[in-house]
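ingest -> validate -> predict -> emit
validate: passed (alphabet ok, no gaps, 232 aa)
predict: started
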Amino acid sequence: MDLSVKDVARLLTVSEKTIYNWIKQESIPAYQINEQYRFNHAEIMEWATLKRIQFAPAIPPEAKEGKNSLPTLVEAMNAGGIAYKVGGTDKESVLRAVVNIMHLPKEVDRDFLFQVLLAREALGSTGIGDGIAIPHVRNPIVLHITKPSITLCFLEKPINFGALDGDPVSILFTLISPTVRIHLHMLSRLGFVLRNPEYRAALKQRALRDELLAKVAAAEVALPLADSPAPG
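emit:
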């Protein structure tokens, strides 16, 4: 558990009183250790993304050194690829189809990846609303990959994904990362870019690959200032 109440309040740009209210409501994932509340960084960022709560896309503490070497979303999406008219009639069959088309090294066990994605969904849907889901594993696992990958898929038919707003999902960003550090970095940047209205409009229009990547790159231009450590 690497975050305090103060850290989470700063990350989510809310007051500490709000954090305590969420804890009281059992809304936010928190752990009581020696009469103090502690939080897992990955869980908080995942929770904020799913709840569509804005958060400061800060680099995780362990990643501040060597920050310039961290990959961009464009690089991760180039690695993962973009697919259109992906088939499937339910969450399980769609995830199977996504795993089958992902650009992965030969050493990666696709069946294992499929199972851990399903296991993550069993903990709660990764549907964030507005027809979008971000399937991923809660904590990075050894998949014989050295770089992050985000595979963007447009489904042939919207499916029930158990999203928070109840709407069916037709757009999936499937994220896999080699380390916790990069997992947090990618989840943070993706959550930030998905709040960009121009990019969301391009997603709704199912724009072509080059246009989608160009709009991601444009949205990421705003991130260097956001990535700066918060004062104090």
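Residues 59-68, 225-232 have pLDDT under 50 and may be disordered.
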